[in-house]
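Exercise: predict the fold of this chain.
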Amino acid sequence: MASVPHSIKQKMIKHKLLDKLIDELNGIVPEADHFNLFELRGFFYAMAITPPSILPEQWENCFFYHRTPDFELKHIENLMSAAFDVYDAYVQLRVSGQLKFPFDIENLKGKQFDWTQQWCTGFWTGLALCKEFWLGDDKDTVDADAYWDDIARNARLFEVLITRDFSKFPNIEQIKTNIIEEGKEPTDDCLFARLFVMIPFSVEILQHVIDDIEAELEEQKTLGQATSRPKIGRSTPCPCGSGKRLKNCCLS
């Protein structure tokens, strides 16, 4: 694999921890049959920002693209030990405020576009382990909440980018309209490009969830009563570059 730019390394964990995990994965299956470096980074990023606890046994199949290879006991122990070390490092980055999306989405060069897509694959795989938390229950619309609607929309972005099933994105028709108004054809490639630039913004929104929950719990503990959940601002300019505000554009 080509060397990772220094700027990316600085924003992520020490690569030796991931190298150790990859060595354990290589000891179980060929390299092509398990998550690569960037997929692992996206996966553990998602794990670090997901509030519900996820059992370790749920991680294993993810590493192998949801297949179940033959394990020996020593393989399981070594693999999960290495995985926990990576997970703990990501949590520490989040707690210390150093966990950041690792790519400059506007200035991707060479293989960085592929690396970003691989990162998103791992990130969505991690989110999908708690799909109901991030996306909600599709059948339950009675108690819809603007805050959680925004969370679901930003989480759904990654599923759509991975599957290219644009029909799943809540505001896809409005996005198509925006593209047409700009004098362009809303092809799948154009839709992908429009959503792709939203990645850093969506990661940031999703990452705020655990901070909001922790802050709310702390305030409840202090005040002895429930507090209103912080709302995500929707009046900021949309990152897609249309010049419109979020409430009137891609994530409205």
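Check your answer against the key: The first helix runs from residue 6 to 11.
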